[in-house]
Amino acid sequence: MIESPETAAYVPVEIIEPTEPPAYTPTPKPSDSNDDTEAGVDSAEDVLLVRNKPITSSLRNTILHLRARAGYWSRFRGLSLFVVMNAVGGVIVSVLHKILPHRVGLAIAAIIVDIILARWHMTWVHIVISEPSEKRWYQRVPPLKTWTKIAPAVALWAATTQVVSVMPMLVCGSFGSLKHLRDPDFDPGRKDLYAVGAQAFMGVLIMLALFVLLQIPATVTMVRVAASMLPEEDETIVPFDRTFGGQTTPAIVGGQGKIGLVEAWRSFPWASRVRLLKLVAKVTAIILAVWVLFISVMVAEAHIMLGDKLSDVMKAIHGVAGPH
């Protein structure tokens, strides 16, 4: 979400290890040899144009890069803050949920808590995207005045997260067998079991569609806005253009020191969007495969083991799958 890949770099020939096919292309020999002298290069044959793939072009390359720069446990950087943030957020949500009952009220409470903890969210992003630091996570939390800068981005991300979580449940629970499961007089049969499985699968598809259309752009926006406020003393673990192509001005020279919501998404290059969508596609394929297997096994077990008692079991659990 933040990598600004350097697609071309000029390097001396002697540092290139031979590969098959070559990982480089020779630069054309200039017609005027004085250009080489001005550039501090002895001859055109001593310089090659290397075209590099982005570090995040594949999961394997990304993991190997993280291990090389931050050690074997690099994928768990920021875990302590993540646990604390979710624990504290969970406690506050449980308190607010008593004031805002039902599932929609729970979603609103979660959004409020995420906005309150916006600085922690930004700190977690900074830990993940930067080189390892000797500072503890609580020493990296930005000043309180930065809350107003990051809160809108976190609010957008939190709202879309809850929409992705709640909307499929509300839609799928508004019709069919899932809707009738809330009725104590409903007498479900075997066909209702299959209907519930189909509606659950439809809910997964709706969730994935909302995730791609809403949550991915909101997450990218939040991460890039947070990244634009990364302290100057912290170095990113992948190449990163702090100016976002000249769209931001550092606070040290009188600028806001951050990128806007719209600019954060518009400055996200299409090549990076494609790489991110490929990653989402891989994860989606895994999720769907596991979900289909889970539903198939659940339906088969219920059909074989419960038999005529299936109706009584579904009555006992009625309302669980419906909206609250």
Q: Low-confidence parts lasting 5 or more residues at pLDDT below 50?
A: 36-44, 319-324
Order of helices and strands: EEHEHHHHHHHHHH
Instruction: Give the number of helices.
Output: 11
- What integer is the average pLDDT? 78
Structural class: mainly alpha
Number of DSSP strands?
3
Could you tell me the radius of gyration in angstroms? 26 Å
Oligomerization status of the protein chains? single chain
Largest sheet: 3 strands, antiparallel
**Major beta sheet, strand line-up:** 1-3-2
Instruction: Name the shape in a single word.
Output: globular
Helix content: 55-70%
Question: What is the number of independent domains?
Answer: 2
Q: Roughly what fraction of the amino acids lie in strands?
A: under 5%
- Distance linking N and C termini: 35 Å
